[in-house]
Design a protein that fits this description.
Elements: H1 2-6, E1 9-13, E2 16-20, E3 24-27, E4 40-42, H2 53-59, E5 65-68, H3 70-73, E6 79-82, E7 88-91, E8 94-100, E9 116-122, E10 125-129, E11 146-150, H4 159-169, E12 173-177, H5 186-196, E13 201-202
Parallel strand pairs: 3-4, 4-5, 5-6, 10-11, 11-12, 12-13
Antiparallel strand pairs: 1-2, 2-3, 7-8, 8-9, 9-10
Helix pairs in contact: 4-5
Length: 208
């Protein structure tokens, strides 16, 4: 089942993903080429490379539901559900849990801002999108089958810190993200994969 769900996850670059499940879900679409209409769009926080109104307009319909915190929702239009870390909701049969995302050794993403990570359940498989975050204590309580983790450093975890996060979460599959656009390179993803070899299966997705 996990392998089947993995095939539904498409990396759009940076922190952006499209999940082709019973509902088409996008997470943080930014500089995307995809024009497949969205049923659900999840926005982790209001920075331009995560909350991109221009990209959202490419995939938004009158029926699209946007899940975002208040800062992001204020930049967008349409059916917006304002959420905060700790919330849970079900949209069109998809269970979504909102979890914290923040920095602990830098100031770009402060805990008080209520920025988001997501746990989405697809066909019984829990997918964790960490958002822009460091390795935070809350990760030790996250249960996920597939974890999408930032690896670039600068604004988020380094590859080494992402390895620590993966070992704490213990997903079946880890997928590196947050590289190749603003900061970070393929070498960060490879470093992450190399250091988890024999511990956790890492899948480096090709950008769509």
């Amino acid at each position: 089942m996990i392998e089947a769900v993995l095939k539904k996850i498409n990396w759009l670059g940076h922190d952006g993903f499209r999940i082709d499940a019973s509902q088409v879900m996008y997470i943080d679409p930014y500089q995307i080429k995809s024009t497949i209409p969205a049923d659900i769009i999840l926005v982790s926080h209001d920075h331009f490379d995560h909350c991109s109104p221009d990209d959202i307009k490419k995939i938004q319909t009158k029926n699209t539901v946007i899940i975002a915190n208040s800062a992001s929702a204020g930049k967008l239009t349409g059916d917006r559900r304002i959420v905060k870390p700790g919330d849970r909701l079900t949209v069109a049969g998809i269970e979504i849990e909102l979890v914290p995302a923040y920095n602990i050794n830098k100031q770009f993403h402060q805990k008080s801002a209520g920025m988001l990570g997501f746990i989405i359940t697809v066909d019984g498989v829990r997918i964790y999108h960490a958002g822009d975050t460091d390795f935070i204590p809350e990760m030790k309580n996250i249960k996920a089958d597939i974890a999408l983790l930032p690896v670039s450093g600068t604004y988020v975890m380094t590859a080494d810190e992402a390895v620590e996060a993966a070992l704490a979460i213990k997903p079946k599959i880890a997928i590196p993200m947050h590289y190749g656009a603003i900061v970070g390179t393929q070498s960060d993803a490879k470093c992450f994969a190399d250091k988890l070899k024999g511990e956790i299966t890492v899948t480096i997705l090709k950008q769509e």
